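Request: Not sure, any thoughts?
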Amino acid sequence: MALLVSFAKYQKDKKLACIIHQGLVSIMSIRNSIDPVKFAADLIKHPSVTPRDEGALDRLEKQLSALGFRCRRYPFGSGEDRVDNLYARMGDKAPNFCFAGHTDVVPPGDKKGWDLDPFAGEIKDGKLVGRGAADMKGAIAAFVGAMSELLETGWKPDGSVSFLITGDEEGPAVNGTKKLLSAITDEGEKIDHCLVGEPTNPTKMGEMIKNGRRGSLNAEITVIGKQGHVAYPHLTINPIPILVDIINSLQSRNLDDGSEFFQPSNLEITTVDVGNPTENMIPEKAGARFNIRFNVEHNSSTLVKWIEGIISDARTNFEGSIDLNVRVSGESFLTPPCKLTDIIQSSAKKILGVVPDLSTSGGTSDARFITHYAPVAEFGLVGATMHQVNEQVNVEDILSLTKIYKEVLQSYFN
């Protein structure tokens, strides 16, 4: 009020009036900008367990539209497999800086184990608690908050800013980012750089940026023989020794020793199943499943050929049959240090005082699809509690991430 009186009193002094007006604009900007913590809580209140949306994308679209983004929804699939996706863009010219993420979450598990309702979006002891707080509704809210604060000051990107949001990251990833990227590319959209808001920091903010990921290959081997009595092995075909030989061959190879940005590739047997409760019977079938997490020293095609070669050798002189089923959930990729990673590192240092390491550790993310379209890096909140009971993030971390994203945008368009 005092500022308004002063403005009225000295409005004849144009220079002073201009200064006071700028102050008013600044104050109103603070009041009108989006509270990222509240917005994150709003998103959590939508129980968007994959593939259900439950209004999460509606809430995000409404907010982005209010900020001036042109929004379009992209549903893929049908029935229970139907997934909704959102692409929103502000600006028409290049470069197009894209923020990618997902509003879907994993199930909460036993709600009795939660201190608070997993879909209430409540704050306790300075922490926002709820499914998706870390992975990754908190990061989406932070980027929306960063855009809001910048736009309220009159800032405009010298190019375009876009959001690429899916509802299928935590699921099979069939009707999500992969199809969305293809659809918008067919429509003439081009992304120049992409920041994914996955929770990349292990224990505290500023620890880690993901500039690549290992690939993931899942395989299932089923050896089929002929069951019979253990006292008459000549009348049976025992599948177990063959399966054991295959497993030994798979585990005997050192895939690689790692590289500058990648840890060594590893093959892990996840289950061996015979399903034979009878002690005097040779079973008909024996199966095993395993996963290979591989770095850029390999690709899925060469690994599959290697596995097929082992099985081919095992079929020699074996009267039964061996079936192989392989599913590749993602190839390995690397974004070498570049403008994008430099900006994220320098922005984090400015806000937090630390420089995040570049890392390719952890599981897969939708960045594995984006890398085919643009340089991509991931930076978000602390992921220590993601997918766990009482998933939570520090309120201060959401505010810090908002500041970092704001700095990233300003630096990028400079």
About this structure: The chain has two domains: 33-211+339-412, 215-330. The chain has eleven helices and 19 strands.
